[in-house]
TrEMBL record:
PROSITE patterns per UniProt: ABM
Keyword annotations from UniProtKB, A to Z: Monooxygenase, Oxidoreductase
Protein name: Antibiotic biosynthesis monooxygenase
Molecular function GO labels: monooxygenase activity
Pfam families named among the record's database cross-references: ABM
Entry superkingdom: Bacteria
Domain ABM: 2-90
Species for this entry: Virgibacillus halodenitrificans
Amino acid sequence: MYIVNSTVSVPEDKAEEVIQIYRDRSRMVDKAEGFLSFQLLQNQKKPSELTVHLEWDTRENYLKWARSDEYKQIHELEKKYPDQELAAIIPRVTQYKVVAE
């Protein structure tokens, strides 16, 4: 299994807005080959820190998704988000290979 986390810190007063954006997400990734699950995590000590947690069967399928037209479409929409403060936030991305279960 392969895990990708994208963490952002948003202004505290906008955390709920960002959470709602992910609740209403397009779900395009759900159809990608090898995709296993999506979760949006909220840090309990810092509620303005949000992490998108994606699980994939393999790194190769994640990379195929990350290079796909669908991935590009989703991320182009983010750049055009009306709230430029949110659109300008750059996530910290970490990737993990699961080595034991």
